[in-house]
From TrEMBL:
GO cellular component: plasma membrane
Annotated transmembrane regions: 30-56
Subcellular location: Cell membrane
All residue ranges annotated as the Phage shock protein PspC N-terminal domain in the record: 2-60
Organism name: Gottfriedia endophytica
The keyword Methyltransferase appears for this protein: no
Membrane topology: Single-pass membrane protein
Keyword vocabulary terms for this entry: Cell membrane, Membrane, Transmembrane, Transmembrane helix
Keyword rRNA-binding: no
Protein name per Swiss-Prot or TrEMBL: PspC domain-containing protein
InterPro entries: Phageshock_PspC_N, PspC
Amino acid sequence: MRKLYRSSKDSMIAGVCGGLGKYFNMDSTLIRLLFVILFIIGFGSLFLVYLVWIFVVPKESDVDIL
């Protein structure tokens, strides 16, 4: 079973995009570009989602990774 976590190695701000990239087996740069595009299209509403993920999704060091 895969676990969603914030990456500590592939992190620009808080590791959310790096963790999503590992979870979906995608390049984290592509995830970051998607976030920026959706941020611009959604008039900043994605920023609130990103902030929630920072506090809800655990860090990589706090998760048991098999």
